[in-house]
Amino acid sequence: xxxxxxxxxxxxxxxxxxxxxxxxxxxxxxxxxxxxxxxxxxxxxxxxxxxxxxxxxxxxxxxxxxxxxxxxxxxxxxxxxxxxxxxxxxxxxxxxxxxxxxxxxxxxxxxxxxxxxxxxxxxxxxxxxxxxxxxxxxxxxxxxxxxxxxxxxxxxxxxxxxxxxxxxxxxxxxxxxxxxxxxxxxxxxxxxxxxxxxxxxxxxxxxxxxxxxxxxxxxxxxxxxxxxxxxxxxxxxxxxxxxxxxxxxxxxxxxxxxxxxxxxxxxxxxxxxxxxxxxxxxxxxxxxxxxxxxxxxxxxxxxxxxxxxxxxxxxxxxxxxxxxxxxxxxxxxxxxxxxxxxxxxxxxxxxxxxxxxxxxxxxxxxxxxxxxx
Length: 373
Description:
By secondary structure, this protein is of the alpha/beta class. It has two domains: 3-44 and 174-367, no CATH class; 51-152, abc type-2 transporter like domain (abc type-2 transporter like fold). 65% of the residues lie in helices and 6% in strands. It starts with a helix and ends in a 6-residue tail after the last helix.
């Protein structure tokens, strides 16, 4: 073993001992991912369930009861019955309900007439997701009720087109299956960029970096000693996150685990490069943490497509997403988990991650100097 390898092995041993003796590093790498997965898996949901809905039936009879039963038996709604539209509108104003379905007194008489039966629908637009759900479900319930009513009375169905929707890749339309894979990108950003920047800044604060600089250790050896341990920590956190996603939340992994691992390795290198780059400018943990949160964590959370659809963002925001490494990793994660090994998605996004890893690591190497200033 030559001198360079001996120095590198000594530095690696130092880093692993420091990680082992520092509970905060292990907590960020393994405990924090589990906490985030629990929070998002159980506490955060984009699915509307039990939406309070006001039902106003001016002339209750068999036909109106048959129609409103579709809402009573739906897991998406929690109907509340009001005698007058005025009482229902008061409840809507107080946000006690999120919408109103109003069946007027001549509902049954005009059930199959032209124009169709008078149904009033009032929706609160405060929550756009719930508003779209109420609107779509009322239209679906009305179309289904019309067809059933026509068959019962021996009349031709009033619908000219029979719509049979199909949902692929996420048949249950569960937001958990969408959020949990994308969350892995946020977790690895924390381990790679935030943790690396904080640990190196801590060494500057404690004076151990200056002691290291006066030795015969080369800059490349220092950078490798910082990269390898946290790369392994990040990959370990990824494996634990995948195990929790599959075992606890039943999120399907339809693609290859090895493809996922290769993409994760590329993203981890990019995240480590960002962490090293931040540590080249920040010599205190507070400053390093603030920069890492603003430059890596928040973009990974907001601009990666993890929660918010990139196509729906303004043009300026969409342009910024192209320099966010998590954007490409989230696309790969959601494809591998929900659709499988779709190479038309994996290869271009993987190439983008490789390019960004090379850029960030190259910049970190170019800016870093073996000096005390």
